[in-house]
Amino acid sequence: MPEDTPIRIPRHLLPADGRFGCGPTRVRQGTLDRLAESGRSYMGTSHRRPTVRHMVGRVRSGLTDLFGLPDGYEVVLGNGGASAFWDAAAFGLIERASQHLKFGAFSSKFVGVVTGAPHLEAPEVIESPLGTHPLPSPSDRIDLYALVHNETSTGVTMPVRRVEADGLTVVDATSAAGAVPVDPGQFDVYFFSPQKAFGADGGLYVALCSPRALERIERIAGSGRWIPPFLSLSSAVSKSVNDQTYNTPALATIFMLADTVDWMNAKGGMAWSSERCADNAALLYGWAEQHPMAQPFVAEPSMRSPVGGTIDFHRPLAWAELAATLRANGIVDTEPYHKDGNHLRIGLWPSIPRSDMEALIACLDYVIEASLP
Fold first, then answer.
1. What local confidence, expressed as pLDDT, does residue 101 receive?
2. What CATH number should be reported for the domain holding residue 197?
3. Distance in angstroms (rounded) separating the CA atoms of residues 349 and 121
C-alpha cells in the first residue's frame, strides 16, 4: 500500500481476501491450484478430443444436478458470453417480436440488439426506475419474453415466473445463476456467463434450454432465415449434446466452471450456495439500515439482490473517496456501475465466506469514522 494513503485500515480488520467485485468475481485459490496441477494433460490439448470433452461433459452434468433440470432439458454451451447470446437469440430464438423488461444497464443491452435486427418487428419494452423492476405483460404479438433474474448494474433481483402466454420465457441470469434459487419449470431458457457466482472467466455462455426452446431453435434454423454460423443456436445444441463447442473454447474457463460446480454440489447444491449469499446480503443490508450514514440503494427489501449489494452513502461521504480508500487498503472492485449515484456495489457471492463479509463491514465502519470531521 502506498505510504501516502490518508486512511490506513488496521491489518487485523482486513478480510482474508479483498476481492468484492460484482464480476469478474474472486476465483478460489483451490480452483487455480487444481488448474495448475492439470499441467500438460489438459491445457494446450484439442477441444475435440476426450480430455476436454470430458470436462465439458462434467460441466453439463454438474449443472443439470445443480439446477435440478427435468428430463428433456439441455445444457448448451457457446463462446462469446451473454453478450453473444443476445445476438444468437435475435437470430435463433425470436420468431417475430419480443418483450423486454428494462431496469438497468444490462437489461437495456438486449433491447438494443433486438431493436437493431432488421428481420424482427419492433420489441415491446416495459421499463421501471432504477432500483425497481417491472413485470411482463402477456401479448398476442409476442413470441419471446425477455426477463432478467438479477440486474447487475443496480442490485435489483426479481422472481422468475413463466409468463402465462404462448411465447417463450427467456431469462438473462448471468449474475444470479448458481446463487439465487430458480424453478426450471418457470423458464424456457436460462442463460448466463461463468464469471459471476461460478468464479470463472467470461467469454463462454451457458443456456439451460427446455424442450419448447429446443423445438423453437430447430424450427427457426430450418426456416431459411440466414443465421451467422458462429451465432447458430442449432449448431451450439448439436455440439453441446456431444460435449463440444462450435469452435475452440477457453479451456481454463471450462475447467474453472467445472471445478466450481463440483464444489457447489459437494457443499449442498443450490440450497447451500443461495443460503451463503442470502446470509452475506443480510449482513450488508442490515448494517446499512442501521448505520446513520448509509442505506440500501434498493428501497424495497424483496427486490434487493442477494449477490450484488448497492449501498447509498450520505454526504459528506462520497463513493469515489470510499472506494479509493478501500482499494488502497487491498479491498477492491467496490466501485458502482452507475457513476451518477453515491453508492458502492459489493459482491456477495458463494465464494465469499461470512468472515470476509463481517471484516468488510468492520473496514467500512473504520473508514467512515475516520472520514467524518
1. 97
2. 3.40.640.10
3. 38
